[in-house]
Write a structure and sequence with these properties.
By secondary structure, the protein is of the alpha+beta class. The chain has a single domain, classed as predicted glycosyltransferase like domains (Thrombin, subunit H), CATH 2.40.10. The protein is 15% helix and 48% strand. The protein has a 6-stranded antiparallel beta barrel with strand order 2-3-4-7-6-5. Strand 5 and strand 6 form a beta hairpin. The protein starts with a strand and ends with a helix. InterPro entries: PilZ_domain (IPR009875).
Length: 106
């Protein structure tokens, strides 16, 4: 697993994570990429995309009216963790989780 040296992987997570599966668009200097949001918290998320973006890459994830700038912090296979530039509100996180659950129920 590749980690960004600026992050402290041993530090306890500040925010609770919600496991989901939601398609998103990912925009970076490497172009546009389709991916799947696998989990989300106020501070970051885990994505699956091929090819994954490199550690340190700045990106924006987009889904409908949500656009969130972030930075890749770790990569393992096609999965990678991102840290949001600014933490999401609890309401934004719940909106993402609700959209994923509504999609699953359809």
């Amino acid at each position: 697993m590749t980690f960004d040296n600026d992050s402290d992987e041993s530090e306890a997570r500040r925010y609770g994570r919600h496991r989901i599966m939601l398609a998103v668009n990912i925009y970076s200097v490497h172009g546009e990429l389709g991916g799947v949001l696998l989990d989300v918290s106020r501070g970051g998320a885990m994505l699956n995309a091929h090819p994954p973006l490199p550690v340190g890459c700045k990106l924006v994830i987009e889904r409908q009216h949500l656009e969130v700038p972030a930075t890749v912090r770790w990569v393992e296979g096609n999965r990678f963790g991102i840290q949001f530039d600014d933490p999401l509100s609890e309401l934004e996180v719940l909106s993402i989780v609700t959209k994923a659950r509504q999609r699953d129920a359809a």
